[in-house]
Design goal:
single chain; 94 residues; mainly alpha; Glutathione S-transferase Yfyf (Class Pi), Chain A, domain 2; 85% helix; elongated
């Protein structure tokens, strides 16, 4: 029973804290968002899945969208010092 309670607490923490801090930390600047999407393209081998124009469209539009999503989450959840906050959260809970 204790295992299930602890697992439920971790799942709740993941939903309430971790999910809302990842996007603002991954997509802090437009350059970092673009770098992340180029990495996704390389790892997922989008060049074989999409045409060149479609792939570049997804990379540029997706990175711009996620940059603004990161800014929105930062404002909504009052994440002021993103890197320090995420470091604290990961160190505290590991």
């Amino acid at each position: 029973m204790l295992f299930f309670r602890e697992e439920r607490q971790w799942r709740q923490w993941t939903d309430d804290v971790l999910v809302h801090t990842l996007s603002p930390n991954i997509y802090r600047t437009p350059a970092e968002a673009l770098q992340a999407f180029y990495h996704f393209s390389d790892v997922a081998d989008w060049s074989n899945t999409f045409g060149n124009v479609q792939r570049l469209f997804v990379i540029y539009v997706g990175s711009a969208a996620m940059y603004f999503v990161g800014k929105l989450l930062k404002k909504r959840y009052l994440i002021l010092l993103l890197v320090c906050f995420l470091s604290f959260v990961l160190i505290f809970f590991t």
